[in-house]
């Protein structure tokens, strides 16, 4: 049986948790949520549906070192990494003309720099492991109401 290990940033709830569910329903052996916050009831319910397959690891995407440590920990535990979904993001529900410098810096730290740091840490892990992994980026203006995407995740090797 082919092992399919994937990581999804920001998968403790919302869109990220929906992506984790899609990964699991499409054959992922294990899915890890890398998130700054605690898991909630929705995460626990999905974990119960997929016992021993859904895990949460705490890290901050705005600090590349914490992402690298989290990925190393996951690889040590799971033995591999095949896919990374860069999903963690923030939004600010107000007019862009009203954004303060702090608002913009917070958004860029997570949405731009955090995405870059996460992708770079995953790419380094793929190279180190000799695995041809995939990195998928998400973007959404619907951060409060995720759509459950039921697409096949072709980035999983052997999922055809």
Overview of this protein structure:
This protein starts with a strand and ends in a 23-residue tail after the last strand. The chain has a 5-stranded parallel beta sheet, sandwiched between helices. 41% of the residues lie in helices and 15% in strands. It is α/β, with parallel strands linked by helices and 160 residues long. The relative contact order is 0.22. It is globular and about 50 Å long. Helix 2 links the parallel strand 2 and strand 3.
Q: Helical content, roughly? A: 40-55%
Mean pLDDT across residues: 87
**Nearest-angstrom radius of gyration?**
15 Å
Strand content: 15-25%
> What's the order of the H and E elements?
EHEHEHEHE
Most strands sheet: 5 strands, parallel
Question: How far apart are the first and last residues' alpha carbons, in Å?
Answer: 13 Å
Shape: globular
Q: How many strand segments?
A: 5
Low-confidence stretches: 144-155
In the sheet with the most strands, the strands line up as: 3-2-1-4-5
Classification by helices and strands: alpha/beta
- Total of helices: 4
Could you state the oligomeric state of the chains shown?
single chain
